[in-house]
Design goal:
single chain, 4-stranded antiparallel beta sheet
Length: 169
Amino acid sequence: LVLDRETFLHVVAESDLMAGELARLVHRRFLVNALLQALPGLRESGATRLLPEVDLARFPAGTTIVRQGETAEAFYIVVRGRVNVVRETADGGRVPLAQLSGGEFFGEIGLLHGVPRTATVEAADGEVELAVVKRAAFQRLVRTTPGALSDVVTTVCQRIAASLEEMAS
């Protein structure tokens, strides 16, 4: 079936059902792409299976998304925008750790090790859009998908190596 642009737009404009279904398909593809960008070892079939347990959340600039010391309840993938990761010190200081953008993730340490959040993450300038994977879904994912676990571990190791290099210089 082939529709020219004008006919397609007319069909979509005249049918709430068609418009809603297209919006659902585009949203689904958008989330699958975000998951695969962050976790390439997941493969498309794994990302599609995970979709029912992934929410899309938006945060305005300056909003605290997770706070150091809180219980880890979810894994986050930056879909759009940037977040700042900071470590809060006992004397009230703040040490910048990283700035993450599209395709990068955070929240894995608390979920993998069952410890409170190790850093605070805040929305940087502009609105931030995140794919949110709840704890049970994330734990099932890393237990059953070796490629996804490997992606997470590789990223954690790269972050540790970069941190050690920064401390040495």
